[in-house]
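Hi R.,

As promised on Friday, here is the backbone we talked about, encoded as structure tokens. Could you run it through your design pipeline when you get a chance and send me back a sequence?
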């Protein structure tokens, strides 16, 4: 599995050395050329969706939920303006533009800050593209900050547009739950894909096709390390949200968050199972390799055993002493050949009866 040099988890943190807390410095790979801001504003009876051209024109009100989706973390200046409009703490803004953040949740008086990782367009055998998404849950607004266009939130937008379910009748905390649930549920398909690919790898080993298996397994193990960093902290994050005494999450939404926590635990267990499966495939490969080597050594040993007495006979009659009567006999040479062939055939049938061949 060919992989590029993965720097997603190795940004240039040296840029932050000595700077004051809250200093915004974009750390990561720029994945879009310009900042894109879209807003969805809704309640049970009203819905609107549009692209925001001026950052000063956010339609924030008490009777509507506002979802502002920001794409392009490299535009530090405009992200800072958005943070000032919604009263976001500088430490949160600093974390938003640092794409190496571990999934986490921070609780503030006026909002909850989440960092989650979504995996876009993963194909078996290709490098996994892990993208950071920051979610801010306020009293009547949601802010999402993404590295580039394309996410797993389109089904939620569709539910809002078509007023499916109860999402339009609920508050911002329920929308935050829905976004988190969409990301966690997307992990299932990724784990299933990797599991199927490893299963095919195991089948190829069983059928004798697997010369590059160690190279493939090395790539998948690196992928599993990336997944571990992205997936495992989600359990702690959701658990903290269900336990924390914050008035930004209603009791009704906490019930749904418990369901997300169950999903996160299942994802973690699936990841552990895949890691064990990959380790088992490696053990199987090494075991098959050793068995094949043993078979080769066994055949070579049997061949050496057959030819050892033949070599002895040839050595004896190759000494050319005058008192060896067989040297002067016309039948001496063919007789020795017959004896040598007989010895070889005898050893062969002896090995066959012992089932060594």
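Update: got your reply. Pasting your designed sequence below so it's all in one thread:
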């Amino acid at each position: 599995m060919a992989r590029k040099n993965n720097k997603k988890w190795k940004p240039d943190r040296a840029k932050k050395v000595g700077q004051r807390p809250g200093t915004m410095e974009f750390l990561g790979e720029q994945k879009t050329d310009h900042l894109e801001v879209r807003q969805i504003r809704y309640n049970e009876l009203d819905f609107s969706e549009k692209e925001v051209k001026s950052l000063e024109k956010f339609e924030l009100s008490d009777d509507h939920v506002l979802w502002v989706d920001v794409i392009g973390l490299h535009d530090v200046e405009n992200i800072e303006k958005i943070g000032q409009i919604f009263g976001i703490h500088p430490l949160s803004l600093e974390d938003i533009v640092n794409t190496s953040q571990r999934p986490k949740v921070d609780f503030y008086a006026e909002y909850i800050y989440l960092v989650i990782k979504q995996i876009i367009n993963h194909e078996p055998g290709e490098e996994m593209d892990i993208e950071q998404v920051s979610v801010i849950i306020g009293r009547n607004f949601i802010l999402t900050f993404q590295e580039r266009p394309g996410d797993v939130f389109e089904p939620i937008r569709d539910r809002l547009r078509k007023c499916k379910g109860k999402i339009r009748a609920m508050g911002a905390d329920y929308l935050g739950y829905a976004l988190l649930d969409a990301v966690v549920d997307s992990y299932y398909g990724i784990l299933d894909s990797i599991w199927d690919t490893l299963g095919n790898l195991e089948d190829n080993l069983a059928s004798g096709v697997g010369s590059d298996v160690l190279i493939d397994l090395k790539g998948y193990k690196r992928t599993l390390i990336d997944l571990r960093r992205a997936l495992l902290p989600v359990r702690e994050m959701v658990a903290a949200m269900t336990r924390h005494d914050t008035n930004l999450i209603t009791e009704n939404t906490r019930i749904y968050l418990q369901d997300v926590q169950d999903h996160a635990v299942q994802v973690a267990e699936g990841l552990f199972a895949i890691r064990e499966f990959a380790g088992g495939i490696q053990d199987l490969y090494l075991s098959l390799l050793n068995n094949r080597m043993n078979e080769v050594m066994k055949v070579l040993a049997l061949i050496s055993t057959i030819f050892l007495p033949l070599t002895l006979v040839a050595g004896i009659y190759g000494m050319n002493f005058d008192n060896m009567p067989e040297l002067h006999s016309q039948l001496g040479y063919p007789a020795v050949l017959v004896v040598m062939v007989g010895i070889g055939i005898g050893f062969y049938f002896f090995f066959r009866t012992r089932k060594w061949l």
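One thing I noticed while checking it: DSSP finds seven helices and seven strands in the chain.

Thanks again,
M.
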